[in-house]
Amino acid sequence: MAITKVLGSKPADCFQFQDPNSWTCMTELVSDVVVEVGDFSFHLHKFPLMSRSGTLQKLISEAAAGADDGEPCSVELHDVPGGAAAFELAARFCYDVRAELDAGNVVALRCAAEHLGMTEDHGGEGNLVEQAEAFLRDVLGSWDDALRALRSCDGALLPLAEELLVVPRCIDALASKACADPTLFGWPMVEYYTARGLEETVMWNGIATAGKPRSPGPDWWYKQASSLKLPVYKRLITAMRSKGMSPENIAGSLTHYAKLLPVERGVATTRFLLGLLRTATILNAGAACRDALERMAGNQLEEAALEDLLIPNTGYAVETLYDVDCVQRMLEQFVAANTSAFAASPEITDEAQLVDGPSGELMPISTVAKLVDGYLAEVATDTNVKLSKFQSIAELVPDYARAIDDGIYRAIDIYLKAHSWLTPSEREQLCRLMNCQKLSLEACTHAAQNERLPLRVVVQVLFFEQLRLRTTVAGWFFVADNVDQGSPIAAGRYAPERSGELDFGAGPPEEEDGDDDDDEARNNVRSSSSATMSVDDIRQRVVELEEECSSMREEIHRIGKPKGALNRLFRKLGLGGRSAARRQQQQSPPPPTSSGDERRKSMSLEC
């Protein structure tokens, strides 16, 4: 039977609930203070509250100083622990109105009393803090009541309950009782009579006698402890271990807790679920147990870390170092559970939405894409990972999930290095997993010199790199022409926003009187030198690209590749050969040029 305690002597109906969401103390005096707690209003009186609570004494005094004469003052207490329910009990205590305490509300009342300053300084002997503490000690003497009190330490109540050592005391009381002989505590701590004992009721001289009770087993506390949330349950198990609980009982409780885990998303952390899955794999648990853990972890895979996915293979027939099939199943579960929103509107016009956009739906899939790329890079060194398995895992991630493909390129490069025996067709098939247009400049530079990549992929990388370079140069020419024509709008539009960027479009500054002419001249010289250096860099990079493509073209012709498609490709690239370009320039008379055209001619770019 649960422990209860009654505070106060006046009838409980002195406090009446009235719509909308208001409590009123029914006395002969008119209410002169209104206390707002959340959505509830309490129409009370100053004297009972100020005489029992230091916090209310201060707040009511401040509110009364600014209130009109004859009007009730208003006080807001939205941060009181336990909310309106706890404040109602505290207010009843101030009026000496009957209030019933039990294991479910004593923690909230204890925290509210501390927050309201209802200590010995404001109430003398028998203050609310003292009363709540005395009843809490009684609650900790019972397993059921202590467990109920511990479960109530949740949400906004938890920080103050930790500060007042309520949570540690509950955990210590439960751990002590679980490690002791359960028969010493009796009913209602455990189910003393078993169902079989009740069925063995017999009649003797017309008097009913029950069967002989038997002592409960060591697992009597498993079910009730499993009702705790994971962080609190972990602390309880740690306390039990420190008090000498046997490893067998702890293992049994962990197994029981794992079987009762709710399937809702977010109840347990992904790291904890993957840790259970790793243990289940090592212990060769049943398929149903592992499937359930895989589904639960897969639903929240974006919260996982790379090291959590590296689950070792423990069977004798397996070949790979890590259980890649398990990761594939979890990834399939995540894609099935989280990409339904994209099916209705699969078009994504801006890949930057994955990182910078406000849409919260795109973030999990982009996080998982980075996680999968890192996982593939880890398992790529395993020579037993088959190409089909590597491809199937990589293809589960939608293309729009990757803002850039540097991660998958790194995984492919590691796989090619560890699997040097792959045929050229298999290498090309593997490289189709990445999009050469989504490689960063650093990745393009690495890929252009990577001998492990197929020649076709290297040509694609160079093609897209030159396209980007040509676009940059064309943009520079556009800005230069506008500057030469004196367009302040274009110059301002391409002005740098961060320090260290080159200002290709900086036009001449507006003329001003005074000593600013020297500063303007120095700025013009500085901008001109920066632009000249940038032009030299661009010219040098274009020359290098042309030489690389020309040498590749000669190599392709030497090994006997078809010429027609390559000629069309190089014509699109504008790489018909430097000698041909020079002949064309010598034969064509130079047209009249403006300052912008002179820059184009000086760069010798066949754009």
From TrEMBL:
Name of the featured protein: NPH3 domain-containing protein
Superkingdom of this protein's organism: Eukaryota
Coiled coil: none
Source organism of this protein record: Oryza barthii
Biased composition (Basic and acidic residues): 596-607
Biased composition (Polar residues): 524-533
Record domain NPH3: where: 172-468
Keywords attached to this entry: Ubl conjugation pathway
InterPro entries in alphabetical order: BTB/POZ_dom, NPH3/RPT2-like, NPH3_dom, SKP1/BTB/POZ_sf
Residue ranges, annotated region (Disordered): 490-534, 570-607
Gene Ontology terms describing biological process: protein ubiquitination
Gene3D superfamilies with a match to the protein in the record: Potassium Channel Kv1.1, Chain A
The keyword Ribosomal protein is annotated on this UniProt entry: no
Entry-linked SMART domains: BTB
Family: Belongs to the NPH3 family.
Pfam families assigned to the protein according to its UniProt record, in alphabetical order: BTB (PF00651), NPH3 (PF03000)
Domain BTB per the UniProt entry, residue ranges: 31-103
Pathway, per record: Protein modification; protein ubiquitination
UniProt biased composition (Low complexity): 578-587
Compositional bias per record (Acidic residues), positions renumbered to this chain: 509-520
